[in-house]
Amino acid sequence: MDTQQFREFGKAMVDYIADYLDNIRERQVLPSVNPGYLQTMIPKEVPQSGENWKEIMHDIEKIIMPGITHWHSPNFHAYCPTANSYPGIVGEMLSAGIGCVGFSWVSSPACTELEVAMMNWLGKLLGLPEEFLNCSDGPGGGIIQGSASESTLIALLTAKEKKVREIRTKNPHLTEADIKGKLVAYSSDQANSSVEKSGLLGSMPMRLLTADNTGSLSGTTLMEAVRKDKEDGFIPCYVVATLGTTGTCAFDNVEELGLVCKEEGIWLHIDAAYAGSAFVCPEYRHLMKGVEYADSFDFNPHKWMLVNSDCSAMWVKDARYLVEAFNVDRIYLKHQHEGFAPDYRHWQISLGRRFRALKLWFVLRSYGVEGIQQHIRSQIALANYFEDLVKSDSRFEVATSNMGLVCFRLKGPDVLTQTLLDRLTDRKNIYVIPCYYRGQYVIRFVVCSRFTEIKDIDYGWNEICEVSTQILENGLN
Ligand code: PLP
């Protein structure tokens, strides 16, 4: 493909994306294809000679779109939001165009320096304690990781190395293996699946402690588990607190957990993957009370802050622990400006890294503080509107509601709500998924798309009501 063809293909694609998003409301949110559908539509081998971009373009509607679940449809209310915005998309384009690899400062100075600056902007925007910022006097700092899962794992591995060093300094006769075999981690049974996975990947048993009946993990529960583990000869090492659980958007009591961690010398990581974006609005910051106790904090601008995936913002209070844990150097990676700015390869799993800060910069500048606050507040207002609709109908009950997420059910046995969800999924007009809350089956309705308006909430509610009426009047068959 030559430059001229690139210009044509690229421009045609920008138009295609703009039309796709402009008209996304018209598309059925869930696809109607069967597993393997695509395999019969494309050749078994790479084409022998190159094809014209127009042929490729033609196949997008034919082959790809039938198999897309439209996450940005205003009728998508499942999981949690995944961000998408025009400045975010353009930032991705430029990152691909420059195509640099920023594993060290010298490998592309702007890549590191913009990331340092953006993580400071973002940390201030959320109201994080100064110690987390690159611009503070201390050893704190932020990095863009690929996912909240990666951040949780990286924090776990860092906590592990830190703990081993601490113990060996006091007890040099102990081997690393002696210590590592006794380390344990804690989180709540409401934590995201990635938290349990971090324990598996990092070879540290992850105790999933029972959250209270609002889905929140308390300091007392943690303290009790820590005490028991110590009695049994284990070494408490790592705690993951969640601000905004995946199921019901519950908030752990960070202040209580933090006090326990401080007392016991345990690394505290905060996973605020979804709800962290809400801290842009000062009225929600009380939910992160105790954040000053955390050793690391992560949230996903790629969920609710309009920055296209992937962009997971992670801060640590003392980046030296990361570097001590992960510094594997080679002559070909060294440079004469080391120590001036972070060499981010030491802060992450992979060596190479994309220029992700560009899209963050574009989004933060395009929307400004007010635009981002407005986005969060309007999505929460839409969720509140939905909650009021549910409450106005005596056939339903709201189980819990937080941020942009409302969990509701049909009154009566679970099977009614299960059937409602199955039928909604079969009809494919809206997409919602279930979870359990206080032992009952509930449907999660999340305001996900930035295109969602009141009329879409009304549409979703009418769909729910219509199917519910069928179930309640005609029975389950
Ligand atoms: N933590 C929480 C609370 C989440 O809700 C999610 C995803 O929904 C994750 C972690 C995983 O995020 P990621 O896909 O960035 O790893």
TrEMBL record:
Modified residues (N6-(pyridoxal phosphate)lysine): K303
One GO process term, biological-process aspect: amino acid metabolic process
GO molecular function: aromatic-L-amino-acid decarboxylase activity; pyridoxal phosphate binding
PANTHER family (alphabetical): 3,4-DIHYDROXYPHENYLACETALDEHYDE SYNTHASE (PTHR11999:SF60), GROUP II PYRIDOXAL-5-PHOSPHATE DECARBOXYLASE (PTHR11999)
GO cellular component: cytoplasm
Protein name: Dopa decarboxylase
Cofactor(s) annotated in UniProt: pyridoxal 5'-phosphate
Protein species of origin: Aquatica leii
Keywords: Lyase, Pyridoxal phosphate
InterPro entries listed in its UniProt record: Aromatic_deC (IPR010977), PyrdxlP-dep_de-COase (IPR002129), PyrdxlP-dep_Trfase (IPR015424), PyrdxlP-dep_Trfase_major (IPR015421), PyrdxlP-dep_Trfase_small (IPR015422)
Entry keyword Zinc-finger: no
